[in-house]
């Protein structure tokens, strides 16, 4: 049994290494993702030809809890190199001073911001400019975009630390300011996207697992596999293990690259992060295994899944968030993100989430085994 398992694993990696394009994509994809994003985010902290751009900030009623966090952002030394923020009492006064040229832009924090954030709802910060298409506007827009990225993680903070007073402010400050906790290095919006890119690559494992099923059950090798004496459970475990190893390797590249190149903080112990990464790779690959076995002979469903996965990867990457409200618990991406952020900021591994993922993995393998056992006999007759 172990010999058959080893043969299937070796066969998989032999095929993969023989296709140089596939091999390059597997290695280059995670580095490219984090490299492009990291460079663009980090570049905002480099010295700029234009510095100390004056902007005004208006805090409308119901934003007092959020105010200290925002003040902390503008008080950061590297942000102060780019922007000099001054509080203005009202929107009308801000518009007047903007028209006079006292400020290059005005940031307006809307009413009931605290309530909206505590409910996990979107908060839209308004930025008014006195001129368009200027260097100053570009600097303001890019710098404030990191504020938006950091604010995304505040939603998670309310889920992760509802019992911690000012938990959202704690997370926000860890994202944008220097910390003196255990010599923790400086963190930026790269923390949010370092984790998000890792989850994106893990999510890609779902697609990779589906394609793996399709390739192995087509052509001569697929026929031999289906009529071979190798037990179905060995076939399932080998396909699953192959996908997990590839996903884990890709995600590890993202983690190590972002940690050592962009100084992203992943908590006190990296082995916990790699454990979560292994769980995530198993989680998404078992979902891919289930879908791959189920849709392999269903053309319409296969087409829908193949179109839907890139869209979901786009959403998983945080480029466009869909608020599922009460049904947000069904999001597999949220599960894995929460595991990462809880450990990074709370130094705690969520055991209920971990056991749930292990249960899903076990159930998925058993269901795949059941479907493949029935599916193999039918396919042998069809192919022969």
TrEMBL record:
One of its GO terms (cellular component) is membrane. The keyword Transmembrane helix applies. InterPro entries: ABC-2_transporter, ABC2_TM. It is a multi-pass membrane protein. The keyword Calcium does not apply. Keywords: Membrane, Transmembrane, Transmembrane helix. It is found in: Membrane. One of its GO terms (molecular function) is ABC-type transporter activity. The chain crosses the membrane at residues 21-45, 192-213, 233-257, 269-293, 300-320, 350-372. Residues 21-367 form the ABC-2 type transporter transmembrane domain. Coiled coil: none annotated. It comes from the Bacteria. This is ABC-2 type transport system permease protein. It comes from Fontibacillus solani. The lineage of its organism: Bacteria, Bacillati, Bacillota, Bacilli, Bacillales.
